[in-house]
Amino acid sequence: MRLISILLILSIVLFGSVFAQWEQMYGPRGTAKIMHLDEVDAYALTDSARIAKWNSTNEEWEYTYTGVPGDVIIEDVFAVEAVVLAAGQSGGDGKGVFRSRDGGSSWIKVPDLPDINFYSISVVSNVWFASGIDFNGPPLFYSTNQGANFDACVGLDAASQTGAMIEFDGKIFVSTTDGLYYSSDSGVNFTKATGNGLPQFEMLDYFFTSGNTLRAFYFSFLESKLLESTDNGENWTEVAMSGIDQDWVLKSCDELNGEFFAIAAKDAAAEFPRIYHSTDAGETWAKIGNDTPYPMLQTSEGFAVNSGMMIAGTTSGIFKSTDNGDTWTDASEGLRYNGYIQAQAFVQGNWVVSTATGLGKSTVYPSEWEEMNSPNPDRTISQLHTAGVNLYAYDYSNLYRTSDLGTNWENISSKLPNGFSLGNILGVDNKLYITGSSGGEQQLLISDDFGDNWTAKNAGSDYIAMLRGTPAKLVIAAGTNLLESTDEGDSWTAYQNNGLISSPNFYEFIPIGDRVVAWAGDFNDSKMYYTDDMGANWVNSEDAEVIGQVEQFLHIQESLIAASKFGFYISHDDGETWNQFYDGYGQRNATSILSSGKYLLAATRNDAAWYRPQVQVTSFREVKNSSPENFELSQNYPNPFNPSTKISFTINSSNHVKLTIYSITGEKIITLLDREINAGNYEVDFNAQNLTSGVYFYKIQAGNFVSVKKMILMK
Q1: What is the pLDDT of residues 449-458, one digit of tens each?
Q2: Which CATH superfamily is domain 343-616 in?
Q3: Best CA proximity match to 31, nearest among 383, 246, 238, 316
Q4: What is the pLDDT of residues 657-678, one digit of tens each?
């Protein structure tokens, strides 16, 4: 019986399937759009481009996108009871129109449409229309079976885009960038109307009827117009609008029971958009309600009304009002945001990120983000850095400092030398380094007191694009060269570029002891290189061709991680060879990576924030150069251990080696090694700081060789 139990445990260990990997943490609040609102349903989009449906019972948004490919950017949603259509754009195969027959719970791609991007869905007189962009084919398609199948509309200009649509006097009208068209056969064929008096090369934004006349709103950046036609769209005249405050322009509108509600904005002003109301077909307007807590979007996705409420899409979520805008309540529960993270830092136990809509902070992973006070809400923070307990924020104009996580911010720009134009910031322990220009010369500024006082050092005349390193070794990218200083900027020594292309750009680099690893080249030909002799010889790294342009390096636990265009990659030999490190993450566009001491924290261009335990970074090295005769997995040392131990193994031929840790129940904890390596003796570090005391197993697979051993974590 005991033998059976042991075999059972080993079989579970060998075939466990729970992987340690990157996990996504959606970003802080961002832009939210209202895509559709009727008396029954509401649909919204955030910058995650995923469809969310309002659950009126729970008063929260629920995501409903099963069947919609991950690379699709949803541009529009329209629903009639349980049938919902979504128009999508994509750089890959996901573009098209998607249909749901269960209120958005599951989706299928509509067949027979061309492989083009779609941006709008309309329903006119029970005919469904999908608008796309195809300069070589029809821009509009119609369906008479609620979007199950579509056919191309005939007669429209192939290079045009389509906008507002309406049924009037037995005809379907559509506004396009090529003018006004109408169809007398339910959208099958279209004929161009004369359209005298309409803006040229512009689409109308909203059609409606007033008695026996056809009316339309036209919204542009500088003006808003009410237009009218009494002859089926052949000729148009402008109708005067009154009641809109001077310098305010209508941007979008919605209609309810013949009354109009419109968003207006004041150009070149910081004032929030406001809501105007008209009860006489758009001729006279009056401002109603109060501003939402955040600016409303100045598009058709920014505002919608039904008989029970108004909903506003804003730069920081969705808000609703049941009293014509007098009071607004947060209606963002359940929404997720994937916005572009501009910058990130870790300070006082908080992960702080900057997005286009402000700052957010988080202490526990995965947790909800808290909003954090921004030093200048009107500007995006482009850089975040730390020194000691201080957080520094730069908004392309001013440098700010806080020691209390944003409760109080101090503008310390005046402490910099007069006329200094800031470029790069580097915080190391309690020191701050800043590069920039003054009087046509490049300078390095150093502060030992967190930015109150600065010492200036000359750094030549070539523009400094990047600053990396430590007080013992600072390296800058200036012009087409790297320069190194070991005396904090008193003197600089230039690297050679032997082995690189002529006049290279250094897109990212990192000093590691005497070595510098860099992603360098030009727009058409950039690669990973390393040098141990200040550029006398630059060596092209192996396995690095598929990495894509590196945005940031992180050196930690004797390993080097690259955040790149195609995800994350790891090197255990300081940049000479590379392996994938993006399980669970995929080939997304990573922009930065840092360490909290417990977690790796990563930012992306369009997929918010990601994290994974730092213990999953493995130090791997060859311990002696020999020609072993056998495969062997050694007992870890020390054992028992707390929290780190070393696992040694020997292989006698080149092989793909996989080394994995399992719990006693068979759960896969982490794969320490999964790569092709040469014959030799190797050692791998395993840090179990995030695991509980107990018995664990480690298993090696190298070709046909498989071995399992037990180890004990004792805390």
Answers
A1: 999 999 999 9
A2: YVTN repeat-like/Quinoprotein amine dehydrogenase (2.130.10.10)
A3: 316
A4: 999 999 998 888 887 887 778 8
